[in-house]
Structure formats: C-alpha cells, structure tokens
Design a protein that fits this description.
The protein is an all-beta fold. The chain contains no helices and 18 strands.
C-alpha cells in the first residue's frame, strides 16, 4: 500500500477583518486555529478571550510557508480564574511588522497565556524607529494572575526597533522572555 500523500495547504489571508473566539460562563472555551501554507494577517484582529474558570486551549497560527502579521493584532486574554490561551505561531519564516501587536494578557486571577513563536528560518519583529504605533510582542498582567512567558525561536531571530517583553502591573508576576 502506497503512503498517503501529504496535503498541500494553500495561502490563507485575513485582511482588515476580525476572527474571534470569546467564551464566558460555565463551559470550556473554544479553540481557534489558522492553518495554511503561507499565512498573511494584514491589519486584522485575531483574538481569543477566556472569561471562565477553565483553562483555554491555545490560539494557533500554523503555516508551512511564510507567516506575516502586519498591522492589526493577534491576542489572547484571561478575564476570570481560568488561564488565558497560549499564542502559538509557526512558519518557515515569521514576520511581525507595521505596528502589529502580538500579546497575551490577564486582568484577573487566571494567568495569561504564553507566546511561542518559532520558524525553521528567521523570526523578525520589526518597526520603524520613528513610528509612534510601534510593533510589539509581549505578555502582561494587571491583576493577580501571572503574565505568560515569551519565547522567539528560529535559525535567526531579529528584533529591530520593536518591543519584546513581559510586564506586570499588579501582584501577578511577569513571565520569562527568551530569544
């Protein structure tokens, strides 16, 4: 019997639109996955919010080719006792630029999710030094819940005039940052 052929994934482009998974109440939060060959999130908002007592599943952007997050935001939030969704981005090359904000946060007792960006090639987080709407990739806590860890991995990692970090503004701790 011949091995099954691998599926070839096409280009996924989300432009000036919103993709959301928001859950409050007593049920487990839903999962949000964007999967394709090349993926382009252009001035788009992709958001998963958890306002339940359950931990949220990850928000995943999984490309077999280049992944671009240009402008807009990719975010997850915890607004109750359950942990916010981890933010997972995979691609051959991953670029975050043009004032895009990639973040996880908590405003409650539940921890924010972690951010894990990995590429087989280069991960780039780029901004123009004069741009007032800087490009940022970070986690933060404004409550008792801890901020998530931030990890960028690739054959090469470039951060140019952008913000990469973890912040805590209340009793919750900031997460670790690793490049």
């Amino acid at each position: 019997r011949a091995p099954a052929a691998e599926a070839v994934l096409g280009r996924v482009e989300v432009t000036a639109s919103q993709v959301q998974a928001i859950r409050d109440g007593t049920l487990v939060p839903g999962r949000l996955v964007i999967r394709g060959g090349e993926i382009a999130l252009l001035d788009a908002t992709v958001y998963a919010e958890n306002a339940t007592a359950f931990d949220a599943p990850p928000l995943e952007v999984l490309g077999t080719g280049a992944v671009a997050i240009s402008g807009g935001s990719l975010a997850t939030g915890a607004r109750a006792g359950g942990r916010g969704a981890d933010l997972v981005v995979r691609g051959a090359e991953v670029t975050v630029d043009r004032g895009a904000v990639v973040r996880t946060f908590t405003t409650a007792a539940g921890a924010s999710g972690a951010i894990d960006v990995a590429a087989s090639g280069t991960v780039m987080v780029l901004a123009e030094p004069s741009d007032p709407a800087y490009t940022a990739l970070y986690s933060y806590s404004t409550a008792d819940g801890a901020g998530g860890a931030v990890r960028l991995r690739g054959e090469r990692v470039v951060v140019d005039a952008a913000l990469v970090g973890s912040e805590a503004y209340a009793r919750g701790s900031a997460g670790a940052v690793s490049l």
